[in-house]
């Protein structure tokens, strides 16, 4: 059996991945309402024969006999291949439910206005290009389903339908949500997904009673923030199958306090905002086909969480904290490279997994003492290691700083090379330095959830505290750029720049934010496939701390990447714009493959020059190819003098994604193969 088994509690579990498929009608019907039961009473027969319908051979023999279902008169003409609705239908003036879906209708006659008792009209999956104004006079209509047609507009008279509570217009040709929709204050369900929508109008916030919204598979550049003002929302469909993918979900999602159903499948998400812990009613979450490397911690503590579909991601292990989701009934992790918990546990379903994780967590707590939280979750065997279990080569040093060194070692149990960061031997250990290393471990514990931040494998406790990380065989980005005889193609450089922006976006989206404060090419490591890993958080800060930054100083050359506001006042508390400025200098390094201010004889001279507005030498920036000009403009925005004039990392990420996507993946692959041979 595949070890990515669909996990569920008992046999009553439904594969919601299938139920809520964008291509399945079941998803739409779920939002519409209850399925009608068996026929109770028959209306007097109206059988359309060839004699009474000589005008339409297709209508010959069509059964126009309505049925009473749940107390309402219903006529079902779905799946009949109709090209028009027979005139006789409009004479059934007591009709309350009309289903003409799955036909070949190109229009609905104005005569439909005769059906004044109509409550429900289903005309989905036809070829309608417009709606007749006659529909707008149906004052009792509550549900209108015209999805999967060819509509590019809606009649403004739709505003007359004061009783309309459910409007299904997904999968049409609407380039914008018509203003009339925003005036329909009684709407409770609105589906606009699978339309070429680039934005949501501000007027949509007037739908103060909206409970269910479908915006899936549109072409938004980012998550539409107008949604966050719909405080009554209970269900949100925001999966992107055909449209642009979301990379970040706004922190303000917490404002949707009534939300119990959330679909974010088919995006490019790697994490969720920590503020989601305030969504106490959330019980169903769908995250299929994203880039998650672990189940987001925030979901483990939601009190009502019952169903989680996180299939087809990059998850290798389930966090032990998942056992806290004690109401979880249905967990789906199929399609992940999962190796923890073991296969025999996964085979026994959701409840077995939660019990196993709880037992593992209890074992760790028995050994925890007062060690940092980071020591308990991220090593391959779930525990810390010790120096005695590591094999150090004769020349293990990879680098060192003012108080810590990084050494290569081999872990025989894990069967992999690792990097161990520890306080320098024979160095007088100060409490503040030990705390810096503890703090770095805690940040790596958080950052490990991003593919572009160095992972925390575990820690060593004896004889001194040390951090255990993966060994990066391709060294640092600085080392690669310094190899002048090695060609590093633009396509690969842009991918690296984009991945750095992704990693920094992740760090800045944590609560509290994690600021790196020492972002430079030396602190960007490269794995075997030249993907980046942001490292060295020794100087990084939690945004909520008021402690002044003292580690970043002219010593060691870091002054080259420090922003002018900090160089003017070294006691200034850093903000996210500190890292953005450093990223601008880092982009200059990627473009030029040179060192900034390398001819300066003193760090103090650099400090004065930067505060006066000078920047790295622009004459070294080439004008070709065209991509360079785009990245160069972004670079110069990042290092602007005023912090508020600099972009966010999310903006950097968006622009660099466009540059990266313009490059051929084949070119990137060829570049990697050439570099690996060298």
UniProtKB/TrEMBL annotation:
Asked whether the keyword Kinase is assigned, the reply is yes
Tell me which residues make up the Protein kinase domain: 392-657
Q: Per UniProt, which keywords does this protein have?
A: ATP-binding, Kinase, Leucine-rich repeat, Nucleotide-binding, Repeat, Serine/threonine-protein kinase, Transferase
- SUPFAM superfamilies given in the database record: L domain-like, Protein kinase-like (PK-like)
Pfam families documented for this protein: LRR_1, LRR_4, LRR_8, PK_Tyr_Ser-Thr
Has keyword DNA-binding?
Answer: no
Cellular-component GO terms for this entry: cytoplasm
- For binding ATP, which residues are annotated in this chain's numbering? 421
Mind listing the GO molecular function terms for this protein? ATP binding; protein serine/threonine kinase activity
The name of this protein is: Leucine-rich repeat receptor-like serine/threonine-protein kinase BAM1
Organism, as annotated? Branchiostoma floridae (Florida lancelet)
């Amino acid at each position: 059996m595949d070890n990515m088994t669909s996990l569920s509690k008992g046999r009553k579990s439904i594969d919601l991945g299938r139920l809520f498929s964008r291509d399945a009608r079941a998803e739409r019907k779920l939002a519409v309402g209850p399925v009608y039961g068996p026929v109770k009473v028959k209306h007097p027969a109206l059988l359309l024969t060839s004699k009474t319908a000589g005008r339409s051979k297709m209508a010959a023999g069509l059964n126009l006999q309505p049925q009473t279902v749940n107390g309402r008169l219903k006529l079902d003409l779905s799946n009949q291949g109709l090209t028009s609705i027979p005139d006789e239908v409009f004479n059934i003036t007591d009709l309350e439910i009309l289903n003409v879906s799955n036909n070949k209708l190109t229009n609905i006659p104005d005569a439909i206005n005769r059906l004044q008792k109509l409550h429900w009209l289903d005309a989905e999956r036809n070829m309608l290009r417009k709606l007749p104004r006659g529909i707008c006079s149906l004052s009792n209509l509550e549900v209108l389903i015209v999805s999967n047609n060819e509509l590019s507009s809606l009649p403004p008279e739709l505003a007359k339908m004061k009783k309309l509570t459910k409007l299904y217009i997904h999968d049409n040709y609407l380039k914008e949500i018509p203003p009339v929709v925003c005036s329909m204050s009684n709407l409770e369900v609105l589906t606009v997904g699978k339309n070429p929508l680039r934005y949501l109008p501000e007027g949509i916030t007037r739908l103060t009673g909206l409970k269910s919204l479908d915006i899936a598979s549109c072409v938004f550049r980012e998550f539409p923030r107008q949604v966050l003002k719909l405080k009554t929302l209970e269900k949100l469909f925001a999966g992107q199958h055909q449209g642009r993918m979301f990379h970040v979900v706004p922190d303000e999602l917490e404002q949707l306090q009534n939300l119990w159903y959330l679909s974010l499948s088919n995006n490019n998400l790697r994490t969720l905002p920590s503020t989601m812990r305030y969504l106490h009613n959330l019980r169903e979450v769908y995250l299929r086909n994203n880039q998650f490397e672990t189940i987001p911690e925030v979901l483990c503590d939601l009190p009502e969480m019952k169903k989680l579909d996180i299939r087809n991601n990059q998850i290798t292990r389930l966090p032990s904290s998942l056992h806290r989701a004690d109401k979880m009934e249905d967990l789906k992790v199929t399609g992940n490279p999962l190796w923890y918990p073991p296969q025999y546990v996964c085979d026994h379903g959701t409840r077995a997994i939660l019990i196993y994780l709880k037992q593992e967590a209890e074992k760790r707590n028995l050994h925890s003492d007062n060690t940092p939280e980071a020591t308990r979750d991220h090593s391959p065997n779930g525990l810390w290691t010790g120096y005695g279990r590591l094999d150090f080569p004769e020349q293990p040093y990879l680098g060192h700083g003012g108080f810590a060194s990084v050494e290569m070692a081999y872990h025989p149990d894990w069967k992999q090379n690792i990097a161990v960061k520890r306080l320098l031997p024979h160095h007088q250990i100060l409490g503040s330095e030990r705390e810096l290393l503890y703090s770095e471990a805690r940040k790596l514990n958080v950052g490990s959830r991003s593919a572009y931040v160095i992972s925390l494998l575990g820690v060593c406790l004896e004889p001194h505290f040390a951090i255990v990380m993966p060994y990066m065989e391709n060294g640092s980005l600085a080392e690669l750029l310094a190899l002048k005889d090695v060609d590093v193609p633009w396509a690969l450089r842009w991918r690296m720049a984009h991945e750095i922006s992704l990693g920094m976006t992740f760090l800045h989206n944590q609560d509290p934010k994690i600021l790196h404060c020492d972002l430079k090419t030396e602190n960007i490591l490269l794995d075997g496939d030249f993907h980046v890993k942001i490292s060295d958080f020794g100087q990084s800060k939690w945004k909520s701390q008021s402690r002044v930054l003292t580690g970043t100083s002219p010593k060691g050359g870091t002054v080259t990447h420090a922003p002018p506001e900090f160089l003017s006042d070294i006691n200034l508390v850093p903000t996210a714009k500190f890292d953005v400025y450093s990223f601008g200098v880092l982009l200059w390094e990627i473009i030029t493959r040179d060192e900034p201010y390398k001819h300066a004889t003193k760090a103090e001279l650099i400090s004065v020059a930067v505060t006066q507005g000078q920047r790295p030498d622009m004459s070294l920036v080439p004008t070709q190819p065209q991509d360079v000009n785009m990245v160069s403009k972004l670079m110069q925005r990042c290092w602007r003098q005023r912090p508020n004039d600099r972009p966010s990392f999310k903006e950097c990420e968006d622009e660099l994604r466009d540059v990266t996507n313009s490059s051929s993946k084949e070119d990137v692959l060829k570049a990697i193969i050439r570099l690996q041979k060298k």
